[in-house]
Every structure is written in C-alpha cells, then in structure tokens.
Amino acid sequence: MNTTTSPADLISSYAWAGFSGQPVTGEAAADHLTLALKILDRDGWVSRDTTPSTEPTALDDITSKSTFREMLYGLVSAVRELVSSDGDGITLDYAMLRASSEGSDSDARCAAEHCLQAILRARFGRSVTDWVSYSAWADRQGRTFDDVRELLIEAADLARTHGPTAQLPAPR
Questions:
Q1: pLDDT in the model for residue 88
Q2: Residue 62 lies in a domain
Q3: Which candidate, 124, 103, 150, 171, places its Cα nearest to that of 7?
Q4: Which of 33, 56, 62, 135 is the most exposed place for a label (fewest CB within 10 A)?
C-alpha cells in the first residue's frame, strides 16, 4: 500500500490566488521560483545563522560607562554590518522577496510560496492543512545551497505541471 502523497495533492485550490486575491498562473509562479534561484546564483545563498558569532562587533565596545554617543555609534555600526551587502549572500526568503521587484510580483510570489510549502508537506508526510515554513526549512542547520536549489526547481516544476494555464480576467 502506497501512503506517499504527491505535492500536487497537497496544494490547496486557493494557492493559485495571489495576495491581492487575483488569480496566478502556474507559469507565473514557476517563473518567480526560477527568478529567485537566479538571484541566489548571482548573489549567493546564506542560511540565517542562529549560532552566535565569535567575531567582534561594534557592540562589543559598549559598556555601562559608554556615553550616549558611543552607544548610538555602536548600534548604528552594528545595524550597518547586519544589512550590508558584503557578498556573503542572501536568504531564500530575501531572494523570493527580491524576485517580486526584479521581474515578478507579489501575487506570483504568493503562489510560488504555496508550491514550496506543498513540496515540503509531501516530503514530511504533512496534510494540506498543516503549516510548513520554507524559510525555516532553508535555515535549518546543515542545509546546503544544493538542497535549496533542488526545492526551488521541484516547486517550479510543480507550478508548471499543475498550476492553472490561463489567467482569468481580474475582477474590477
């Protein structure tokens, strides 16, 4: 007896409506996933690292005797370090978000995220109503870029194969 459920069975019908409520084609969702992968290939991928760094930061110099100006400078420097694009790469979450502004849109991102979730539900034996987080999956210790790449490719294939093929007219 085969108890394996396919990802296509685990994607809900509402998955093909974007954040705006308008319909999204499978091709648009697949294109979004493909664009996110291209962005990761270009900018590099990093997992959100929850392990404390041993590298010194600007905050390390702040003590109870620090002036307000020193504290503010340390805080601004620390934030600048966190958000700087120093070539370390970006997370899967950020690549999905960036794809929305680099040729795709938020509605396609919404449908693409549902495809990622359906793949993960199938892998872990979850039902269509179970919540799974692709970003938590991508950030799990030991995850590799090859794992992330495989998930994006599989989700794009799911979208192309099982998503709607024609865009319905948008309600006015």
A1: 76
A2: no
A3: 124
A4: 56
pLDDT of residue 97: 94
Q: What is the mean pLDDT of residues 61-67?
A: 73
- pLDDT confidence of residue 1: 34
In angstroms, the CA 43 to CA 65 distance is 40
Q: How far apart are CA 9 and CA 12, in angstroms?
A: 8
Asked whether residue 105 is domain-assigned, the answer is yes
Confirm whether 168 is domain-assigned: no
Distance CA 148, CA 146 (A): 5
CA gap 136, 47 in Å, rounded: 9
Burial 11-40 (b: 16+ CB within 10 A, else e): beeebbbbeeeebbbbbbbbbbbbbbbebb
Q: Is 172 domain-assigned?
A: no
Split at pLDDT 50, 70, 90, the class of 123 is very high
Round to whole Å and give the CA distance between 121 and 115: 10
The secondary structure of 110-145 as a DSSP string is HHHHHHHHHHHHHHTT--TTS---HHHHHTSTT--H
The domain of 129 spans: 7-46+89-162
Cα separation of the two ends of the chain = 48
Tokens of 131: 């919540």
